[in-house]
Amino acid sequence: MSDAYPQRIVCLTEEPTEVLYAIGEDHRIVGISGFTVRPPRARKEKPKVSAFTSAKIGQILDLKPDLAIGFSDLQADIARELIRAGVEVWISNHRSVDGIVAYIRRLGAMVGATAKAEALAVRAEENLARIAALAAALPRRPKVYFEEWDDPLITGIRWVGELVRIAGGDDVFPELLEEPLAKQRILADPLEVVRRAPDIVFGSWCGKRFRPEHVASRSGWSDVPAVRDGELHEIKSPIILQPGPAALFDGIEALHAVIARWAVGAA
């Protein structure tokens, strides 16, 4: 019966690793992304065989995987090489909160752990509903600018904007949330942020430390409410920019904590 499901999985990004550990199927993982930080023990237990847009193909093949799992069009070249070498590959491309929840369920089904994945998905849905209820009780909603990169300025991806909304805020660039590619979310004019006057700025600079003092010193930004009031906050990229469970638990918790503090303080 066990042969019906993958036994040797290479995870090219963090979210499949996090899901498989969370549902007790981590014994199937034979290789992980070097960017993996969740769960911490994965880095100690599994060989690191890929970055995000590159991978050690030879090392991966030596692991004799029966499935490789990745994310997004940015891993198309890695996927092509592995497919040509005879490896089965699943590249997900979900970009929404609902997509993350569905991803958990699909991955669980692929490894024969449907019930455990369903339990994790339901916990995530319940947490989102709990945060939404807390947010609904806040006296006001802040305007939020989420910055995914600083040079050039790139706004948040769709699931981030959705989590901001659930957590009690309103993304100031709603028209960009549907754009799946980072290059489509580049702000040609940084002063557009000034014009939209966010009350809170969240920064998650995709693997490097957020520097609020750099944001505050940008030309023309001194009158932005978030800058004026010191509401410049880092959300660590592993808990918000990975389309996996972390965003639905720790990520939204971090967003809501800042938003709730602002809403109550401003009331």
Automatic annotation (TrEMBL):
What Gene3D superfamilies does this protein map onto? Answer: Nitrogenase molybdenum iron protein domain (3.40.50.1980)
Q: Which residues form the Fe/B12 periplasmic-binding domain?
A: 8-263
By its UniProt entry, which SUPFAM superfamilies does this protein fall under? Answer: Helical backbone' metal receptor
Q: Which PROSITE patterns match?
A: FE_B12_PBP
InterPro entries, A to Z:
ABC_transptr_periplasmic_BD (IPR002491), Vitamin_B12-ABC_binding (IPR051030)
- Signal sequence extent: none
Q: What is this protein called?
A: Iron complex transport system substrate-binding protein
